[in-house]
TrEMBL record:
Annotated keywords: Actin-binding
Name this polypeptide is given: GBD/FH3 domain-containing protein
Biological source species: Electrophorus electricus (Electric eel)
GO cellular component, one term: cytoplasm
Annotated PANTHER family: FH1_FH2 DOMAIN-CONTAINING PROTEIN 3, FORMIN HOMOLOGY 2 DOMAIN CONTAINING, ISOFORM I
One GO term (biological process): cardiac myofibril assembly
Domain GBD/FH3: 1-179
Length: 179
């Protein structure tokens, strides 16, 4: 997926994104990790890919009778949270998708879906745990800043969402970005 022609092929073939999203629900850690990395690469490639990913997730979860992003929330909802690498990749995917959404309605929709599935409980659990990985805490903080900017954004709808999020202190590899 690193080559332009290959990425354009993936963009034109939504079934590939659906398949990769399905694979993050696998019981095999390496399959989940690889799928998350490929999905991250897809979202980062072009801003418009965030919407394509959401459509793919919607197609898979609707067919399964689940709420959108249920596979990602299953990873985040693991009570023991032993595999912090998967937790970090999952939160990074969510944050980068949120950062790439073109409008506030899409942003609201995604945050609402995640919150309905217990994202607040997940973040609180990891924030209160002393042994939580630093990278995971940073991704959770990014999510919290983004999702709480909803109330701030209603004060000034003319400003883009990125105006409310200050991520300058984060390492480059952890900042949600597009393109």
């Amino acid at each position: 997926m690193l080559y332009v022609d290959g990425m354009n092929g993936v963009i034109a073939h939504p079934e590939t994104m659906q398949w990769l999203y399905t694979l993050i629900g696998s019981k095999f850690r390496l399959v989940v990790k690889t799928s998350l990395k490929l999905l991250l690469m897809f979202v980062e490639y072009s801003e418009s890919n965030a919407r394509l990913l959401i459509q793919a997730i919607s197609a898979v979860d609707t067919k399964r009778g689940q709420k959108q992003w249920s596979n990602a929330m299953e990873i985040l909802g693991e009570k023991d949270g032993v595999d912090t690498e998967l937790l970090v990749y999952t939160m990074t995917l969510i944050n980068k998708t949120l950062a790439c959404l073109p409008d506030q309605d899409s942003f609201y929709d995604l945050v609402d879906v995640l919150e309905e599935q217990g994202m607040e409980t997940v973040t609180n659990r990891h924030f209160t745990r002393k042994s939580t990985d630093r990278d995971l805490l940073e991704q959770l903080n990014i999510y919290e800043v983004d999702s709480t900017s909803l109330s701030l954004s209603s004060l000034s709808l003319s400003l883009p969402l990125s105006h409310f999020v200050s991520l300058s202190s984060l390492p480059l590899s952890l900042k949600p970005n597009c393109v």
